[in-house]
Amino acid sequence: MMKVLGISFGTKNGTNDSICMEALIGAKETGAEVEFIRMSSLDIKHCTGCCACVKTLLGGKGNMCVIKDDFDWLLDKMLDADGIIISDPIFEEGASGLFHTIMDRFGPRMDRGNNIIGSKVAEENGGKAIDPRILKDKVISYMGVGGSDWGTRVQCEHAMQALTPMWKIIDNTWYPWAKELIMDDVRLAEVHKIGVKLANAAKDVESAAYQGEEGLCPHCHNKLFYLDNESTNAICGLCGMVGDVVIEDGKTKFVFPVEQLEHAHDTIPGKFIHGDDIQRMEGAFAKVRQTEEFKARKKRYTDSIVSSFLCERV
Q1: What string of DSSP letters covers 242-253?
Q2: What is the mean pLDDT of the chain?
Q3: Residue 91, phi then psi, degrees to nearest 5
Q4: 178, 90 in Cβ contact below 8 A?
Q5: What is residue 307's predicted lDDT score, i.e. its pLDDT?
Q6: Distance CA 58, CA 115 (A)
Q7: Which of 14, 44, 100, 309 is the most exposed place for a label (fewest CB within 10 A)?
């Protein structure tokens, strides 16, 4: 049976829990088996940036994280699902801190390009195979819940989590002034429909496509851009394509050369480019770390931290 997993990043029995359940009720009506996870009940630690995951992965030694907590249990649930619905409270105009922690823990470990490269390296050198579910297509929908109308970053930040494993986003919406959303029958019906659409998309993942609000970027539907203050040049804050922001018929439009698609962060060619960059950087850094000059400079900082600047909780 098709499985749909709902994950709430909100407070226990709060609005996020409620609307996540409403979406799951919609998914269940289509015949899906549903399951609900409240993130606040799990022990999820922050990513330390140690890079052990990407080093072992690109070395053909499997997919792993050195941190021991509930993340692998959560990841197993997510990989086992055909579709995922996430409900997340909006913090400071963007995704919650806990959502950012999950996004960080996905990092290079869940990147589809890195896993394709790591699988090939393992196959050619008799290494450790990765979990095949990591390379399986999946559909996902996001709902951001705001206590005001501040939410300019949340859709882009949510979509960044799906970008890493290249999961297909079906809906990516946010609800401003949503503390009392369960009393708003119109918006509650929208939430219900998000669950229905997600479950139906999971039945045919290969043909699944984005069904949410159209964004400024025609490729990834993002609305958040990094602008050049001396030209019309712009970089999409999600897929990373470089183009121009222009005005046509009184409306803002993002245009880009077609070759930029090969550099987009959510395409296989773009991920391979990124993977090659990581390998070059890590290789160069490994050599630098062996030099006496690097060791001397590093010692200066580590000695200063211990002797003069370190502040510890007692």
Answers
A1: EEEEEEETTEEE
A2: 94
A3: -110, 125
A4: no
A5: 67
A6: 8
A7: 309
